[in-house]
Amino acid sequence: MIISIIGFMGCGKSSVGRRLSELLCCPFVDLDQVIEERAGRTIPEIFAQDGESVFRQMELDALKSISFPSKMVMALGGGAIMTPGCAEIVQAETMCIYLRASIDTLVGHLEGQADGRPMLQGAELRERIVRLMEERSDTYEANAHMIIDVDGKDIDEIGAEIADSILYLQSNQINEL
Ligand code: S3P
């Protein structure tokens, strides 16, 4: 089973993904890291030099470049699922988990961290998060096979909750992915 993790910036995708991969004893891939390694540049550099649309194409190319093993956890960048080609791959190849966080939780996690996140520039942090969440939340939910509410939970709790749900699905053969 390939597990993909989606959700807004700051919801904990990479940390939870890494923890989940430990619990499930399988590799972890961070799509943002794949993009940076392939480009030899950081994400803020890519946005500054080439703009968002080039970054979105790089995101799709990186996702296409991954040769999916039989078992893996993969964290996507917060905007990746908004690109139709990315959503198609996620739907075809993965079991998709949406880490759903409230605006307050996201603001709390992202305060002081907007510098490395080009999509959070240009407005007050909460306002920017609210606006982007309005654009994205339906797409996150529509693509999710499982939604995990993360407010008030730590990484270990979230990882364990997902691992338990997956092991339950597998033991009952509910999911054939
Ligand atoms: C983005 C999220 C970032 C990164 C890029 C764009 C977005 O990843 O892919 O800055 O559009 O939400 P994280 O969600 O891991 O911060």
Cofactors, ions, other ligands: shikimate-3-phosphate
**Largest sheet features:** 5 strands, parallel
Helix content: 40-55%
Distance between the termini: 6 Å
Query: What's the arrangement of strands in the largest beta sheet?
Result: 2-3-1-4-5
Strand content of the residues, in percent? 5-15%
Outline type: globular
| Cα gyration radius (Å) | 16 Å
Structure annotation, total helices: 8
Write down how many β-strands occur, each being a DSSP E stretch of 2 or more residues: 5
Structural class: alpha/beta
> Which regions have little confidence, pLDDT < 50, spanning 5+ residues?
none
User: What is the N-to-C succession of helices and strands?
Assistant: EHEHHHEHEHHEH
Calculate the mean pLDDT score and round it.
Answer: 95
How does this model look, in words?
There is one protein chain. By secondary structure, the protein is an alpha/beta fold. Helix content is 55%, strand content 12%. The protein contains 8 helices and 5 strands. The model has no long low-confidence stretch (mean pLDDT 95). It binds shikimate-3-phosphate. Residues 9, 13, 32, 43, 77-79, 117-119 line the site of shikimate-3-phosphate.
Offer a concise description of the structure.
With 177 residues, the protein is of the alpha/beta class. The chain has 8 helices and 5 strands.
Search tags:
single chain; 177 residues; alpha/beta; five-stranded parallel β-sheet; globular; binds shikimate-3-phosphate
Q: What order do the helices and strands come in, and which of them pair?
A:
Blueprint: E1 2-6, H1 13-24, E2 28-30, H2 31-39, H3 43-50, H4 52-65, E3 72-75, H5 84-93, E4 95-100, H6 103-110, H7 125-143, E5 146-149, H8 155-171
Parallel strand pairs: 1-3, 1-4, 2-3, 4-5
Helix pairs in contact: 1-8, 2-4, 3-4, 6-7
Shikimate-3-phosphate (S3P) binds at residues 9, 13, 32, 43, 77-79, 117-119.
